[in-house]
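Intended use. Records such as the TIR domain-containing protein entry shown here are meant for training and evaluating sequence-to-structure methods. They are not intended to support clinical decisions.
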Amino acid sequence: MPLLQDIQLVVRTEIGGVKQCETFTGLAMPTSMLIEFCHVGSTAAARSMEALSVALLRELRSGVHAIPVEPPCGGWSHMCHACGEHDCHKLLVLVGDDRTPAPKSMDPLALWIGSDNTFSILPVLPEKARVSSKRLLPSPLDAINAVFWSGQEDEALPAVLQAGGITASPRIFISYRQIDTAAAAIQLFDALSHDGFDVFLDHFRIAPGVDFQARLMQELGDKALLLVLESSNSAQSPWVAFEIAQAKACGIGIIALNFDGAPQDPGIDPALRRLLLGSEIRTDGTIDEVPLQSAQRFIRHEHDRAILRRRVALEQSFEQAVAMAGGPAPLRGADGSYRLHAGGMTYATWLTPRPPELPDYHRAHTASAAPTRSVIIGLSQLMERSRQQQHDWLTNLCDIELVDEGSMAMAAHRMVQGLL
């Protein structure tokens, strides 16, 4: 029984003593995924596992608006048939406490440890278990980087979303006016970098001799989220205005931190803005610790939603472009590609919400054999000239067609005719 034509995600857990299996689509994930929760056997670990499971399911239903669908197997079974699907990736979220070791023989941990590289494990532990985590996690789990929570279990949710392929590695662009918020921008750069973000801040990331505007456009395209620091003079900055306009043109999410009642950009959704009171800003221009931590949680939360919205919008645009060209509905494969049979040709199309990267080429090249034609659609026109030249070489080497997202309609028309 195949896992996926309609299903992209399976979540298996136990809530309130009841084992349950939930299945979803509408997430625009690069591959299908099974996320299974288990705990080390203690009451504390079981309680934490339930809290984290509930947080994940709540975010799927009401946060990113995933679409629930009926499980193909009809409900719970001892072992999900997704474990036998090679194209489906499997993540075991192993929840522990600060005292109980995880036995390697426990079910289903033994299956995950002994399986191939489509099976991965994410240990989740309370912060007070950090010093003893090597003792609590048996080999080979002791070599895995665990995620730790300190206040509430849902602090581990971003790590679960990322490890489960629902979101991508976090990347953010900070837009600010130096004369107002340079100190806070550097503080956020440091805090978010320590939180695992790839952060662009022009103070650090643009070397001498680089075309400033070309690099800004490339960096914006590489990110999932634009963070605007609204300050007393930011509305007068042409660079802040340019970065907001480019983010909107590329479908990149935009959020704002507003400093002490500064003018608010009318183009930013008020629900995606956090206000910082004057009393929360230090005399040196940095942010107090508690509101800084609150801002980090807000940024992480909105980043995950932004990348999912971007993926969904990209898929919908491609489907509409094919329909407008008179082609049949493309079918989504378990490997993340869209398969289109038209004009006597078969196309495997890979949609990337960022400018294409090496893993995109590797995935497309290894998954599609002749006579299937591989196509990658992404924001290629935002790349600097030297990077575009590298991609031209790579597409020729791999025999892959690279299409800029702005030319999607034309590419769909040519695919329907069998001419791409």
